[in-house]
Design brief:
Length: 305
């Protein structure tokens, strides 16, 4: 009888001990849940699934823990995307003032793409209260896609960067550089650079004058119809010339002077400024030939190698 009674007492003691442990774990789990530590609370609730309303808390904490994990992952991803986009925006902004481009309209184009990128930049959302709302916030952030915006920004950046590098090639280039590049133009036959002794205009090296003057003949012009025995003596009429200036202002002054003769008996052909170079083509070429020849010369001078 005593043994039986002792067994009952032991069972009751163990049961009470277990209940006490469950109660302690439950209270601690509730505390963690209230503090927002759903992962820690879930671990405790999973140990007492049948105690009181633990099963409800398991569902709630599991949903919240899963939603928060999804939110944090989405937040991290969006922050990385925003950082990448901002770097591109900063680089593009710096490029717009880094140098003179051959085509100045490309600055405006890039500035437009910068504005579009800034407008497309998504904000990191604050974490809502419920699991459903948290998941929705995560989905919204995960949907952010800058592929098109970044592609447009990269393309405009490359175009402007290329144009700036091209301008550098024709910003008071050396005589040797111009001669080398003219050698790549298909219709050019002979090339000669003037010296102080044979410069027909007497402008070489003088204030406001050119730093180099290179004449060249064109295969489409009958050289017998042009007076003179050398390319320099024949001048621009035998094909064309490039006058290199130290500044755009000096080149513009010279072009303005030449433009005064356009359409008259003293017209000397086409003329256009590229960088600080004044490119001239012979009046003996047709208008379409002048345009094609001029384009080929510009392409040769500004080719990036």
């Amino acid at each position: 009888m005593k043994k039986r009674l002792l067994g009952v007492v032991l069972v009751m003691a163990v049961s009470m001990s277990l209940v006490g442990c469950k109660s302690s774990d439950y209270k601690e789990a509730i505390k963690l849940e209230e503090q927002g530590d759903y992962s820690g609370a879930l671990e405790l609730f999973n140990g007492i699934p049948d105690y009181k309303d633990s099963s409800d808390h398991i569902t709630y904490c599991s949903d919240m823990d899963s939603a928060i994990t999804a939110y944090e992952d989405a937040k991290t991803q969006l922050e990385a995307l925003n950082a990448e986009l901002q770097t591109k925006i900063d680089d593009a902004t710096a490029l717009t003032t880094s140098g003179t481009p051959l085509d100045e309209t490309l600055i405006t184009t890039l500035e437009t793409k910068i504005s579009e990128a800034k407008a497309a930049k998504a904000d990191v959302l604050d974490m809502p209260e419920t699991a459903e709302e948290i998941n929705q916030a995560a989905e919204t952030m995960n949907a952010t896609d800058y592929t098109t915006v970044m592609g447009n920004l990269d393309s405009a950046y490359t175009d402007l960067d290329t144009s700036i590098k091209q301008y550098a090639l024709v910003d008071n280039p050396t005589e040797a550089f111009v001669i080398e590049r003219l050698g790549n133009v298909e219709d050019i036959v002979d090339i000669s650079a003037v010296t102080e002794d044979n410069d027909p205009n007497g402008h070489l090296g003088k204030a406001g004058g050119y730093t180099a003057q290179i004449y060249f003949s064109n295969v489409n012009i009958n050289q017998g119809s042009v007076s003179g025995s050398t390319v320099i003596e024949k001048g621009t009429d035998c094909g064309g010339s490039i006058e290199v200036y130290s500044s755009v202002e000096d080149a513009t002054t010279r072009e303005t002077y030449l433009a005064a003769f356009d359409g008259g008996i003293f017209a000397s052909g086409s003329h256009t400024i590229v960088g600080t170079c004044l490119i001239r083509t012979s009046d003996k070429l047709t208008a379409s030939q002048q345009k094609e020849f001029e384009a080929a010369i510009i392409e040769a001078l500004t080719a990036l190698e």
